[in-house]
Amino acid sequence: MAKAEPNVVPLCDVLLVLLIIFMVITPTIQKGIDVKLPETTQDTTATPQGLIVMTLHKDMRVDINHQYYSLDQVGNELRRLYGDRHDKTIFIRADAKLPYNNIIELIDIAKGSGVEILGIIPEYFTEE
Q1: Three-class DSSP labels, 72-89
Q2: Domain of 77?
Q3: Rounded to whole angstroms, how far apart are CA atoms 42 and 45?
Q4: Considering the entire predicted model, what is its pTM?
Q5: pLDDT tens, 80-108?
Q6: pLDDT tens digit string along 52-66?
Q7: Is residue 111 part of a domain?
């Protein structure tokens, strides 16, 4: 009586070919984002040179690099700051407990004022 055994050689060939294909393709499809980190200083309260940080406080006050503005003045101040700048990057710092639509409103004001790159810094902080 003859035993029937499956021929696994073609299956191994197919698996090796698939393995090689995945090894070749995987490095080309890796995705990521480019990140530009600001330079740090020893003073943790100082803002790096040329960096603009806009902070939204719980009471809806806005400060741009520690200068306070009302929400309707922010657009004019940002247009003044970014009018002749080459680096149109801003960091928006806001309390993480604030409703997101308040931050979106600030983002809209910034984009309308000429800002091209936005960074959002969610924090739990106490008011000064």
Answers
A1: HHHHHHHHHHHCCCCCCE
A2: 53-123
A3: 9
A4: 0.58
A5: 888 888 888 899 888 878 888 888 898 89
A6: 899 988 888 899 988
A7: yes
Pairwise CA distance, residues 63 & 100, whole Å: 18
Strand partners, 54: 64, 92
70 falls within a domain: yes
For 1-128, strand residue ranges (E) read 53-56, 62-64, 67-69, 89-95, 117-123
3-state secondary structure of 18: helix
Which element (helix H / strand E) includes 107? helix 100-112
Q: Is 101 helix (H, G, I), strand (E, B) or coil?
A: helix
Residue 83 sits in a domain whose CATH number is 3.30.420
Q: Which one, of 37, 59, 68, 56, lies nearest residue 104 by Cα?
A: 56
Angle subtended at Cα 65 by Cα 102 and Cα 128, rounded to the nearest 5 degrees:
75
Q: What is the identity of the amino acid at 14?
A: V
